[in-house]
């Protein structure tokens, strides 16, 4: 591979996302870029080239195996150090049964060299083509709590998978597998476990686990952002002030503005799922009235009814 050099393509930069971006973030960035540079909207040559770059980047980053392999390439060399050369053994342990997308008109030499059969420097299977009996990659799902995504976690999975015996026969066996869930993982992201996929004559494939969040009684995830309904009292809504609000990362003080209304949304910047950048927490205020269970409480509400000229239905008409 010493003479196999090419112009490096930074697919994350093309889409404008971080290297740890979730599948949803990559999909949103692709849609935004495709709309911006689509030939029907922009007819100039520069936009056409950028449209092709956006499509190519998405073809790589939307696929778990292809993205995991691309991440092993490293990053673009500093300016002035010549063309890019992949590190030795970057493609070890990867195998793609398909050459790539059905339509790839205009894809770069960089993509062709890495992901196409017959495109490699030796004229064989190409950068991704291991062939020769390597086991297939496997896919699974791992469910974690939102709290696990804040601090990371270790899980033990029970798997029933094929095992090749000494005589070459394949049997199904139960096994335990330890999985480390990294801090900041997001829903839809894949965790790659090298060599834990289906067995083969030249080694096992990889196991790709898609991360899913278990239903949470309080929080609703959307990418790296979290949403929740925050109950407040009528007097907290009217007078404003600080309230203590729990988050998966710990308790925080939230300032409620005066005359807050039910349904008003408050943002806690950077308090969502960890990442670069971290997500936000959006709290929707929900005014909750106390139960009137004593004569004193009833008298208090009756006094408010008499002394406060307030009609929440005034805007509905009918009077």
Total helix count?
8
The string of secondary-structure elements, in order, is HHHHHEHEEEEEEHEEEEH
Shape call? flat
User: What Rg do the Cα atoms give?
Assistant: 27 Å
Largest sheet: 4 strands, mixed
Give the tally of β-strands.
Answer: 11
pLDDT average, as an integer? Answer: 78
Which structural class fits the helix and strand makeup? alpha+beta
How helix-rich are the residues, as a percent range? 10-25%
Q: Can you walk me through this structure?
A:
The protein has helices at 11-15, 23-37, 45-61, 64-71, 109-115, 146-151, 234-239, 295-307; strands at 138-144, 153-164, 170-181, 190-193, 207-213, 220-222, 225-232, 241-245, 252-256, 265-268, 281-287. The longest helix is centred in the N-terminal third of the chain and has 17 residues, at 45-61. The protein has a four-stranded mixed β-sheet. A three-stranded mixed β-sheet has the order 1-5-4. Strands 2-3 form a two-stranded antiparallel ribbon. Helix 2 runs antiparallel to helix 3 (45-61). Helix content is 24%, strand content 23%. The chain has eight helices and eleven strands. Mean pLDDT is 78; it is low at 92-104 and 117-132. With 319 residues, it is of the alpha+beta class.
Short description:
This protein has helices spanning 11-15, 23-37, 45-61, 64-71, 109-115, 146-151, 234-239, 295-307; strands at residues 138-144, 153-164, 170-181, 190-193, 207-213, 220-222, 225-232, 241-245, 252-256, 265-268, 281-287.
């Amino acid at each position: 591979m010493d003479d196999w050099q090419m112009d490096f393509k930074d697919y994350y930069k093309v889409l404008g996302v971080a290297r740890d971006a979730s599948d949803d973030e990559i999909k949103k960035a692709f849609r935004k870029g495709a709309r911006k540079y689509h030939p029907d909207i922009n007819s100039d040559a520069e936009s056409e080239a950028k449209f092709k770059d956006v499509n190519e980047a998405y073809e790589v980053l939307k696929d778990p195996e292809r993205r995991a392999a691309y991440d092993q390439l490293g990053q673009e060399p500093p300016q002035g150090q010549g063309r890019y050369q992949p590190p030795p053994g970057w493609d070890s342990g990867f195998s793609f049964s398909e050459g790539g997308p059905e339509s790839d008109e205009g894809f770069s030499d960089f993509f062709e060299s890495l992901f196409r059969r017959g495109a490699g420097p030796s004229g064989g299977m190409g950068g991704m083509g291991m062939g020769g009996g390597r086991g297939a990659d496997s896919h699974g799902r791992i469910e974690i709590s939102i709290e696990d995504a804040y601090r990371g976690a270790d899980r033990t999975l029970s798997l029933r998978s094929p095992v090749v015996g000494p005589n070459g026969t394949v049997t199904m066996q139960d096994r335990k597998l330890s999985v480390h869930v990294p801090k900041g993982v997001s829903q839809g992201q894949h965790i790659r476990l090298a060599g834990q996929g289906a067995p083969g004559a030249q080694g096992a494939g990889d196991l790709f686990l898609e991360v899913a969040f278990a239903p949470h009684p309080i929080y609703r995830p959307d990418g790296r952002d979290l949403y929740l309904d925050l109950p407040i009292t009528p007097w907290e809504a009217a007078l404003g002030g600080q309230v203590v609000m729990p988050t998966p990362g710990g308790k925080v003080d939230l300032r409620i503005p005066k005359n807050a209304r039910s349904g008003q949304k408050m943002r806690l910047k950077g308090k969502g799922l960890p990442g670069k950048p971290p997500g936000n927490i959006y709290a929707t205020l929900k005014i909750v009235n106390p139960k009137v269970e004593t004569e004193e409480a009833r008298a208090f509400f009756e006094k408010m009814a008499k002394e406060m000229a307030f009609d929440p239905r005034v805007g509905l008409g009918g009077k």
